[in-house]
Hints:
alpha/beta; 2 domains; 15 helices; binds pyridoxal-5'-phosphate
Amino acid sequence: MIDLKSDTVTKPTPAMLEAIMNAEVGDDVYKEDPTVNLLESRLAEMFGKDQALFFPSGSMANQAAIKLHTQPGEQLICDKWAHVYNYEGGGASFNSGVSCKLVDGNRGMITAAQVAENINPPDFYHSPLTSLVCLENTTNKGGGACYDFEEIQAIRKVCDEHQLGLHLDGARLFNALVAKGESPKQYGEVFDTISVCLSKGLGTPMGSVLIGDEKLMKNAMRVRKVLGGGMRQIGFMAAAGLYALENNVERLAEDHQRAQELATTLAAQAYVKQVEPVETNIIIFYLNDGINEVDFLKRLEDRGVIISGMGQGKLRIVTHLGYTQPMHEELMEILKGLV
Length: 339
Ligand SMILES: *Cc1c(COP(=O)(O)O)cnc(C)c1O
């Protein structure tokens, strides 16, 4: 099967498995796992931050960040499509007792002006106190779109003027860095906390990391424990993460290239109404009116291809390291052959 429903479907390669097998491990709840400690210090250093902490999932890393930045009753600002609002099971309210002020952004991205407009006046005690802004880069529901770094800097300025925390849901931050030629240090400078997934395009079986400065991160171990995320000999998975940082970052450009080629091919097909701009590894496209989405997905599946349907003729393809050049060539022919 050519499975392009998500970049989370990747399985460890033999070389990554070898790195896992050879990992030196210890009890990470006692902070005695040397491989986890190495992964954390490497990422903290890469982003120019004091600390990093390994989490079982990106959702938990984001939820911990929200908890570290807020008090119950407060409010965070995010795009209406944000993962922290839509896809973490209502965790912001469940774990931190905060509400989300949703901004009508563009492809999952919001502007500094929109942030400023959505801050509740702090002395108006009828409204929840705004204390945090959460951005996503690349955006998931926004089709892998990347922020302009200047906009992020402008948002930082607004946050400073209003004493708001700034968190980045960087599940696919490495895709943005590779696509835009940006550096982790740039991001470390403007964000208070950053979560990064190792289990998406970087291809590990599990794990995300939350990165930030001592001031906020000093409570991160406690919050992770409360959320049930304290793990023991998890250095096996940290070893996969270290392997991924060394071997699987630059190759994201291949995923982006193949996504571009798929988008160009799709745009030329009569059954496609529209293809959204492709910046990284996510392609969102719309079927022509009158073509049934379920039937279309079934026809692809009959040819060994899995992509995801988002409803109302909106479809999503995600390229990743398990999607090889021969698969790519095969899929391009399949797409051209559908009527
Ligand atoms: C995948 C993803 C996460 C984390 O998801 P988990 O499945 O919990 O690891 C967070 N934010 C975005 C934008 C994502 O795409």
